[in-house]
Design a protein that fits this description.
The structure is a homodimer. Chain A is α/β, with parallel strands linked by helices and about 300 residues long. Chain A is built from twelve helices and 13 strands. In chain A, the strands form two sheets. A nine-stranded mixed beta sheet of chain A has the order 5-4-1-8-9-10-11-12-13, sandwiched between helices. Chain A has a four-stranded mixed beta sheet with strand order 3-2-6-7. In chain A, helix 4 links the parallel strand 8 and strand 9. The radius of gyration of chain A is 19 Å and the shape is globular. The first copy, chain A, starts with a strand and ends in an 11-residue tail after the last helix. At the A-B interface, helix 8, strand 13, helix 10 and helix 12 of A face helix 8, strand 13, helix 10 and helix 12 of B.
């Protein structure tokens, strides 16, 4: 049993108020894999170039992640992104995007990757996502991400793909943009009508909400005194969320399971942003995760005390 | 025992994607009073002009609110604000602000208003807030709001005032701006060092967080399918929060009490935005509030299920 993730493997140059780094291992599949590896065996699928070294591969292999489906494109360069965070990390400016080997990426999954129990389609072109989804016909649970660019440029393909998965994980504004609905709740209700089992709305530093046919669940982000680098937070969340679902093989895919998955996703995302790139999650321990999930539980619980209100 | 609130009583002209209204009863003291009146007897203190009619006064008196300290300024006009909401209500544009009678407002509290059990200082000039705070020397709990304008133009007065109250309720970005700290958590920690018992960070449609010396608590906003008019949400939150504290006379002012107050504040704010101005909260029922607090409890609770993570 394993988790397959298809998406970018990248080098990032990042500047934040805490400092800057010229070359960090990054990309959606990387951040997802590092988070999900706490829960299950992970197989990332994505292309890299000649500049992708043994150290990078070793990082990706943290906690037993299998890199057989990391495709080395001879003569190519790895996807490169450079960005800077402003205004207390609220605003991100992209300085450079060089797709490189990612530009002509056609996901070809090994039989082992196709035979996954759980599949995550990170943010790539929707038709490619659908192709991968069809290669993994036996997956018990399929979740996907996307972005405003595809909503604007490939809406029909995106809708086809969403209708073929179980769970959509997207920013709240993208959910509203995708459906044309004025609120996240209305957007999620419409999307559940497309056949999704769950819609997860990401709210950046404010947390995330879960929508199923059964109920709504909302969880704030873990309160951090110091945030160093927000890059990859969303993919770390997805890794924790999807990884948790993968680890609970015997539990039905329902609201109660997804609620707990939200807590693990939130915990993993909070660690990811504490240091640059993959630094924090690479050396994260299982005890630290459990402690943070417990903290999150305590910090969100309140008692219902009876009170007579004035009418 | 009663709650005194000092702040604006206004007429608002509001345009939102749901429609527009030319003249709504509004202002911080109004929204606060309507919310807090579910919990205790409320005395709003603020000036109005000749245009403030019997219907407006009757609305303010909902659920027994005592308007003896609403000061009629002969020949004057009531504070007027006009604004428009854009981008799915995320962005507010002020079209007109006419302070009118509010410009020369010097709060003079009646003995009954001074004798309050709990005091809320809505967003007015910090020295005026401090003067009111000193008039209510016996108040058991004093909370205050402010805004970026005072942070920029009257920082020293604002700090003096904050150091004289128990609880600061502010937007997260304003907390960061006030302290120069890069995160809300760091800002709240610094402000607790000023002697506050509680710092409440408001996150608009994403919810709010509570910081005390004891712990952190975070609560998402109630998920609404339809939002009509966000005006006054923050003051309705404050009314629910401060009102709840006022109603729990025998409980120590601590984290557990404030956590439950957060739930009532969140519930009241969510009702406020469902219709224009004061329309929804005026005819709100106690059962509806209890039901929403119960919903909020259910929508934020998750189980801690033991899980063996991969190390």
């Amino acid at each position: 049993m394993s988790v397959t993730v298809v998406g970018s493997i990248a080098f990032d140059a990042v500047k934040t108020p805490s400092g800057s780094r010229d070359r960090l291992l990054g990309g959606a599949a990387t951040h997802f894999s590092l988070a999900a590896s706490f829960f299950d065996e992970v197989r990332p699928v994505g292309p890299v170039g000649d500049d992708f070294g043994p150290d990078d591969l070793a990082t990706l292999q943290t906690r037993g992640t299998i890199t057989d489906d990391v495709e080395h494109v001879p003569g190519g360069k790895t996807f490169f992104w450079a960005g800077e965070y402003h205004d207390n990390l609220n605003r991100r400016e992209t300085l450079q995007t060089s797709l490189n080997v990612f530009e002509d990426f056609q996901p070809k999954l090994s039989p082992a990757a196709q035979d996954c129990d759980v599949l995550f389609l990170a943010n790539i072109q929707p038709d490619l996502q659908l192709g991968v989804r069809e290669q993994c016909a036996n997956a018990r649970f399929v979740a996907m991400d996307s972005m405003d660019f595809w909503i604007n440029s490939a809406r029909e393909a995106l809708e086809r793909t969403i209708r073929a998965v179980d769970c959509l994980i997207l920013n709240d504004e993208e959910l509203e943009q995708l459906t044309g609905q004025p609120t996240t709740v209305a957007a999620a209700q419409e999307l559940l009508g497309w056949g999704l089992k769950a819609v997860v709305s990401k709210h950046g530093k404010y947390g995330a909400a879960l929508f199923t046919e059964e109920d709504v669940f909302s969880l704030p982000a873990y309160p951090l005194e110091n945030v160093v680098d927000p890059t990859g937070a969303g993919d770390s969340f997805a890794g924790g969320f999807v990884g948790y679902v993968a680890a609970q093989r015997d539990e039905p895919l329902g609201h109660e399971l997804f609620k707990r998955a939200m807590a693990y996703g939130t915990a993993l995302a909070s660690f990811n942003v504490e240091e640059f790139g993959t630094e924090r999650v690479t050396r994260l321990t299982t005890d630290e995760i459990s402690e943070r999930v417990n903290d999150l539980h305590r910090m969100t619980q309140f008692d219902l005390a009876p009170l007579t209100l004035r009418g």
